[in-house]
Specification:
This protein is of the alpha+beta class. It has eight helices and 23 strands. It has helices spanning 2-26, 93-118, 122-164, 186-212, 219-246, 255-305, 309-333, 380-383, and strands at residues 36-38, 40-56, 59-62, 68-73, 80-81, 86-90, 169-170, 178-179, 337-339, 344-349, 356-357, 364-368, 372-379, 391-396, 400-412, 417-419, 422-431, 443-460, 465-467, 470-477, 480-491, 496-501, 508-510.
Length: 514
């Protein structure tokens, strides 16, 4: 019985050993199975991968140089425009009117040149004589009015000083006038007293010159001096006004009195400003009359004597001046319209007819129809490997990874931008070809080719073991695993690495070294 049990026990043990061997063969050797590959030649490229956004190659925000009311909107968002096309305009009625006058004057001067070259008929000469006589009479009237204005302006200046300003001085007409206001600023007091003494000398000269002033006197010198004197009086009154306005009411200077002081000096300043403006108007009118008389006399002379070469040149110069005036108006009119600086598409338009827009405020956004570009930030660790002109392959999230677009590195900004604590450099890529599917704002995945080699030995990067700054692979030679030191080169984004030395084509290496 014991023998039978012993034999049965031996059989069970034998079966168990066989089962264990099978289990070990199936599972136990799984850790020992090694993946092997043959070293082979292939093409390899090293790339830098970044993500960016598509942007138009040219984009600009446009605004008016003038403030005004929108009179016309000739485009809309999404519409195409060509270079120079007007997109928006604001009201410029006065400029158009002035331009029309300038164009009429040009036509008149061109007709006059034609007449100069042809000569005048007797009846035309009579017309020129009448025109000349009328111009001479206009000069006389303008001069008389001019002289009257000079006298009136002098009176206004004298009144502003004697009637208004002198109320605040003691002995104002002396060589030592004293300011009778409670002014703490001694410098301001001294300046005003000196100004009053100096202006008194000007007023005395006015009185002396007025005695001998008549219509035959030369007005130019007198008026230029008068303008200088009036501006001196204006400055004196402004300084006096500042002092009076700085005063505070007190027991010796009630508010009502102070208000009268301020009103008085304000009236004086206004009268002097009006006098300066009126004198300038009379001066302009007189000079205009003189110019008209000179033209009339020249026309009469030309009609009688016929045109000389010099006369023709003079008239041609007048025509050139008239044309330049039109050019000036055209330049001014350009400030009242927004024109497309390049052919493109209106991306945004924020203005409507009748709306008032401010100068300098962007109202139109224009993007080009030319090739789009990609803007991406390249980390500091990769930027040294990228050069202008480097090729890149691009995929757009909108179309998936199977749709590839070619691009090149166009520009690398030299200054860093810190993103999440990492220095990066804005890099611009230009698409190699226009494609209507590319739209501004799309997300772009860019792989920049920084190096590329063809027909070199490559192995998977996970076949390389690094140790003490050296690199090794486990090779199968005659069935034995042998460790071989290798020199590596380029790494690809696909996980391959170039073998520069240490292996030959056809060598068998382990992908997962022991």
């Amino acid at each position: 019985m014991k023998a039978i049990f012993g034999r049965h026990k031996a059989l069970v043990f034998f079966v168990a050993v066989i089962f264990a061997a099978v289990i070990f063969g199936v599972f136990g050797r799984g850790d020992k199975i090694e993946e092997t590959i043959f070293v082979q030649k292939s093409d390899i490229r090293s790339v830098v991968s970044v993500t960016g956004r598509v942007a138009p190659a040219a984009e600009v925000d446009l605004s008016f140089e003038k403030t005004g009311r929108v009179t016309s909107v000739r485009s809309e968002i999404g519409s195409s425009v060509f270079a120079g096309q007007i997109i928006l305009s604001i009201s410029a009625g006065d400029i158009f009117a002035n331009k029309s006058q300038a164009e009429a004057r040009l036509a008149t001067e061109e007709a006059r040149l034609l007449k100069i070259k042809m000569g005048a008929k007797p009846e035309e000469i009579a017309v020129y004589e009448s025109k000349r006589d009328s111009a001479i009479n206009s000069v006389a009237l303008a001069r008389a009015s001019y002289v009257e204005e000079i006298v009136a302006v002098r009176s206004a200046g004298e009144e502003a000083v004697h009637k208004n300003a002198d109320a605040f001085f003691s002995n104002p007409n002396s060589s030592s006038p004293q300011l009778n206001l409670p002014v703490r600023d001694s410098s301001a007091r001294t300046t005003l007293q000196f100004d009053r003494m100096r202006i008194e000398g000007v007023l005395i000269l006015w009185t002396d010159s007025a005695k001998n002033f008549n219509a035959e006197d030369d007005l130019n010198g007198a008026v230029e001096t008068l303008f200088i004197n009036l501006n001196d009086i204006k400055s004196f009154l402004e300084r006096l006004s500042l002092v009076i306005n700085s005063l505070e009411p007190s027991s010796s200077l009630p508010s009502a009195t102070l208000d009268l002081y301020r009103q008085s000096i304000s009236t004086a300043r206004g009268n002097v400003l009006d006098a300066i403006s009126s004198l300038q108007s009379k001066k302009d009118a007189y000079e205009k009359a003189l110019a008209a008389r000179d033209i009339a006399e020249r026309e009469l002379t030309l009609s009688k004597t016929g045109a000389t070469k010099e006369d023709i040149l003079i008239q041609e110069a007048v025509i050139l001046e008239a044309r330049s005036q039109i050019d000036l108006y055209n330049a001014e009119l350009s400030k009242y319209s927004i024109r497309a600086p390049f052919s493109g598409v209106v991306a945004d338009l924020d203005a409507e007819v009748g709306e008032t827009v401010s100068a300098g405020s962007p109202v139109v956004s224009l993007i080009s129809r030319a090739r789009f570009e990609i803007e991406a930030f390249v980390p500091e660790v990769d930027i040294a490997r990228i050069k202008k002109g480097a090729l890149a392959s691009v995929t757009l999230d909108a179309y998936g990874e199977d749709e590839m677009f070619a691009a090149t590195v166009a520009d690398i900004r030299p200054t860093a931008t810190i993103l999440e604590g990492v220095p990066t450099y804005l890099t611009t890529f230009i698409f190699a070809n226009d494609d209507p599917r590319i739209l501004s704002g799309m997300t772009a995945n860019v792989e920049i080719i920084v190096d590329e080699k063809k027909g070199v030995l490559v192995v998977p990067q996970r076949a390389i073991e690094s140790r003490d700054e050296n690199k090794f692979v486990q090779a199968l030679i005659s069935g034995e695993v042998v460790e071989i030191e290798v020199t590596t080169g380029l790494r690809s984004a696909e996980g391959e690495i170039e073998i520069v030395s240490g292996l030959r084509e056809g060598d068998k290496v382990l992908v997962s070294p022991r």
